[in-house]
Amino acid sequence: MIKNKADLRQVVKDAEASVQSEGLRIMICAGTGCVSNGSLDVYAELLDQVSKLDLPISIELEGEKISDSNVTVKKSGCHGFCEKGPLVKFEPLGLLYTGVKVDDVQEIVEDTLQVGKLVNRLVYHSPTDQKEYPKEKDIPFYKTQQRIALANCGNIDPEDIDDYLGHGGYQSLEKVLFEMDAAQVCQEITDSGLRGRGGAGFPTGRKWEFARMADADQKYIIVNGDEGDPGAFMDRSVMEGDPHRVIEGVMIGAYATGASKGYIYVRAEYPLAVKRLQKAIADAEKAGLLGENILGSGFDFDLQVKEGAGAFVCGEETALIASIEGDRGMPRPKPPFPAQSGLWGKPTNINNVETLANIPIIIEKGSEWFNMIGQPNSTGTKTFAITGDIANTGLIEIPMGVTLREVIYEIGGGIKDGKEFKAVQMGGPSGGTLTSEHLDLKLDFDSLQEVGAMVGSGGMVVMDEDTCMVEVARFFLSFTQQESCGKCTPCRVGTRRMLDILERITAGEGQPGDVEKLTHLGEQIKKTSLCALGKTAPNPVLTTTQYFRDEYEAHIEDKKCPARQCEDLATSYKIDPEICIGCGLCKKECPVAAITGEIKQKHEIDPEICIACGACEKVCPVDAIS
Amino acid sequence: MENYDLQKLDPIIENYRGKAGSLIPVLHKVQTEIGYLPIEAQKYVADSLQLPYSKVFGVATFYTQFSLEPKGEYVIHVCDGTACHVRGSTDILKELREQLELTEEKITTDDLQFTLETVSCLGACGLAPVMTINDKVYGGMTPEKIKNVLAELDGSDQ
């Protein structure tokens, strides 16, 4: 039990010694992605084989000498490079093996651990420059990244509080409790320029200051872990991979705002995050880091996990508060802002998970250090979940201001299967769509806002040339329409009407003037909705009508879907007799036998039978089919 | 639900009695216990917690995690988040519906073996398209893989 500063120092010292004594640490990613690819079996097998190893080991690996070293096998949180999982990392060498299977374990133990030889097939091989990258930091996916919020994800065991303590954990908490008063903490965060990572980008320090100034017998702090944006999973990774950092961040926030009670609201779709956080809270309580009179400083703090029950709107802070109170999660008008009247009518401060994950390091290294990272008005880093039609899917953290091009082509490895980049949806269903003309745009709060998109949660869904933008807009709107809580009319009825129009356009029944109706309705809904869900719901439609107007027109005027995605607009395929070489591949591939022709003769498609599935187009070696 | 002794819910409710904001956790636990939230159980919870039944019903129908219908032994969630959508989740859903003879309206098989639902995002976008069966994650799905996955389940419970 840690009762005071001296106890904490001792515990930290022991934890650091224990990390030291672990020697070579083999971290197996136990994030959701790698687990579903079988990483837990790899973990079990490694654990078993390493236990039979003659320890200590002395080898030379990648030019570094490891002598008389222990070997420890551990599970870690998400490393981010989900595409290449299961991932196995060797610390302190920074060596990374990708796509590791149970059958590889014996070779890892015999070759790498006993002889110091790399297992070449497990080393990352870059398809773009054909080079091999044994070390994580050299891999193009990681090279431009700067990990602050995700610093520990993948490097420590999230279920072991000692591992967090051994890596500098809870020392920022000690610093604020003994060296700073609440106003100073708020000022430090304001000076750092940190802006909320959940969507709107409001300055965190100012938010804290509002809550601090509120006068009340009871104040609350809430961690918003209701990460509902489809295509975003950074908060999940932090909660699963480094739960103690979230706890430390919220404790510092509680101290700064004067809250003695806190809730971490986690969406119900994240059972592992709930489990890890609950364990972390229980461990912190047991250690004396949560509860009454923490470290003997007189600061009391009680923290609980609250599970959501599946409602996207609960990401909105007043709806989230209603949900914690046990009601339907419906937003209410602001003001009063939660900082004045929030949970149970008391002053409440709400921060996003990633925002809080940045707090301990800002306290540790200072606001000046944080200011040096990123852009003047968007300091620090931002995590992005890059997904969709991109070669390297995964979770990344980059300084604010890196360009879209760098993210897609350097970190992301370009578009999948060598296709052309078409668009990227930034910030989930609330965000906007960016196109190739924005590739050199800097990714920060203000630059994105200027072009109608937003950083949002950091979801980044990349789409290739085969994607129909009208269908994408319809998809997003059907999502927000479904998730509209129904309280205010503009959102409830307006999104429904917009969806009706989009549905008829994709069904081939679009009418002249539909695009104007969509933009008019969209602008109205933005202006008049009660909460951010409605205010941002039209964004995907407004940006796609702006940047892909020709696609809307093709659907409406010509009844054609240029990307051939809208089934109702599918037209039959044709073979160009000038190009056809009569190879017969298309005939073989056609699922409905619509193609006739003899080998080495021109082939033909019967438009009556053709279902426009596109299978023939894909196999044609000479591109004769369109 | 027939013959279910509602008093079995008492220990669950007892734990939360008098605590503010306890309706959602109670409903979660009741659903885990019974498998869904039948009207009778909702009324029982309302009476026990001294809440209007309208409030309990309102909450139970507001959140997608709560179900008013019994579910199958295997609950399949097909992710239709953006990343999964652009990587072909619609085809996965189509194939599952075909194999299990389900539709958009009819989501549970008659023998209560399977329930098929879509979810907006499971946060496993790196593995798109993704589905889960009773919380086990299946990544990189293709319509071809589905047959094997379903066959595996049929085998495992016999």
Structural features, described:
The complex is a heterodimer of chains A (626) and B (158). Helix content of chain A is 39%, strand content 15%. Chain A is α/β, with parallel strands linked by helices. Chain A has 5 domains: 20-143, Glutaredoxin, CATH 3.40.30; 161-371, Rossmann fold (3-Layer(aba) Sandwich); 381-464, Roll (Ubiquitin-like (UB roll)); 469-556, Up-down Bundle (de novo design (two linked rop proteins)), CATH 1.20.1440.230; 572-626, Alpha-Beta Plaits, CATH 3.30.70.20. In chain A, helix 7 crosses helix 14, helix 18 (469-483) packs antiparallel against helix 22 (539-547) and helix 19 runs antiparallel to helix 20. The radius of gyration of chain A is 27 Å and the shape is flat. The termini of chain A are far apart. Helix content of chain B is 45%, strand content 11%. Chain B is built from 7 helices and 4 strands, in the order H-H-H-H-E-H-H-E-E-E-H. Chains A and B meet through helix 2, strand 14, strand 18 and helix 18 of A and helix 2, helix 4, helix 5 and strand 4 of B.
What fraction of residues of chain B sit in β-strands? 5-15%
Q: Assign the CATH superfamily of the largest domain in chain B.
A: Glutaredoxin
Q: H/E series of chain B, N to C? A: HHHHEHHEEEH
Category from helices, strands and their pairing of chain A: alpha/beta
> What's the architecture of the largest domain in chain B in CATH terms?
3-Layer(aba) Sandwich
CATH class of the largest domain in chain A: Alpha Beta
Present the secondary structure layout.
The complex is a heterodimer of chains A (626) and B (158).
Chain A: H1 5-21, E1 24-29, H2 32-36, H3 39-51, E2 57-61, E3 64-69, E4 71-76, E5 88-91, E6 95-97, H4 105-115, E7 124-125, E8 132-133, H5 140-143, H6 161-166, H7 171-179, H8 182-192, H9 204-213, E9 220-225, H10 234-241, H11 243-257, E10 261-266, H12 271-287, E11 291-294, E12 299-307, H13 317-324, E13 348-352, H14 353-365, H15 367-371, E14 381-388, E15 394-399, H16 404-411, E16 421-426, E17 433-435, H17 445-450, E18 459-464, H18 469-483, H19 489-506, H20 514-528, H21 532-536, H22 539-547, H23 549-556, H24 585-589, E19 595-596, E20 604-605, H25 615-619
Parallel strand pairs in A: 1-4, 9-10, 9-13, 10-12, 14-18
Antiparallel strand pairs in A: 1-5, 2-3, 5-6, 7-8, 11-12, 14-15, 16-17, 16-18, 19-20
Helix pairs in contact in A: 7-11, 7-14, 8-9, 8-11, 10-11, 10-12, 11-14, 18-19, 18-22, 19-20, 20-22, 22-23
Chain B: H1 10-16, H2 23-34, H3 39-49, H4 53-62, E1 74-79, H5 82-86, H6 89-100, E2 114-119, E3 131-133, E4 136-138, H7 143-156
